[in-house]
Amino acid sequence: SAINCILKKKSGGLICGSFKSVYEVDEKNLSYNFLIKNHCGVNIFYDSSGKFYWLSTLDGLVQFSDKSIITKLPVNPDKNKILYSGGICTETNNIYAIYSGVLVETNTASQKYSLYDFPEKNILLTCICDGKKGNILIGTTKGIWLFNKQSKKFSFFNLFNGDENRQYFNSLFCDSEGNLWFTTRDTLHIYRLSVSDKNPKKIDDTEIESFNASYKSKNIISDIAEDKHKNIWLISEIGGGILSYNLNTARWKLYKGKNDR
């Protein structure tokens, strides 16, 4: 089953979610064991306490530990089948998720929802990430937006010159050093905005070219995670292997499975 999402465990290792199950992976030998079965994992993220995990699914949110499911929060009754895509658990116990044209803010203590209509119409909200500076970053089919958690206001994130601002962004990620990562879908580009830079840089590497060429230059990045060894992991739900970038060595590496082209 294709991998939809990954999360680095604080104790080491990775948690991966697929269309059927959630399982833990040893990043050294790639062995795995199942944590949750019969749940379609859209995204996995830490509880604000750092002790538990949240799994966003087609039907709502599932809180779980390394041993069992703890809590299930159903979808908002005002919406039918909210797709909790790209959830984030913040220090205030609020979880942010995206659905067609709506940002959903869920308070895990009260189990109440707040809905914020997206200001631009006729676009799809594709991914979400915590920008660590009071803003939630939201990727769309026509650029990246910011949502301020305090003011509850949206603003467009002008990062590039001209038409590059309006690309189809497929994944967003903030690493342990505060660098922001962006990837695009129609044509795969990987960008990194370093803490010390004002403008993002497009990354070119032969390993990325090999990863993209595996699907006639139409591969995508579905999710991004970081492990305790400063490795950034980038996965695709359609295959082609797993890309890795080390923050210390600045080297890229592509890991291909037996069935990858």
Task: Tell me what you see in this structure.
There is one protein chain. With 261 residues, this protein is mainly β. The strands form 6 sheets. It has a 4-stranded antiparallel β-sheet, with no helix packed on it. The protein contains 1 helix and 24 strands. The protein starts with a strand and ends in a 6-residue tail after the last strand. Strand 10 and strand 11 (102-107) form a beta hairpin.
* Computed structural class: mainly beta
Largest sheet: 4 strands, antiparallel
Give me the Rg, rounded: 18 Å
3D shape? globular
Q: Kindly report the average pLDDT value.
A: 81
Please state how the strands of the largest beta sheet are arranged side by side.
1-2-3-4
Keyword list:
4-stranded antiparallel sheet; mainly beta; 24 strands; 261 residues
Task: Please outline the helices and strands.
Layout: E1 3-8, E2 14-18, E3 21-25, E4 32-37, E5 43-46, E6 53-57, E7 60-64, E8 69-74, E9 85-89, E10 94-99, E11 102-107, E12 112-117, E13 125-130, E14 135-140, E15 143-148, E16 154-156, E17 169-174, E18 180-184, E19 190-193, E20 201-202, H1 206-213, E21 223-226, E22 231-235, E23 242-246, E24 252-255
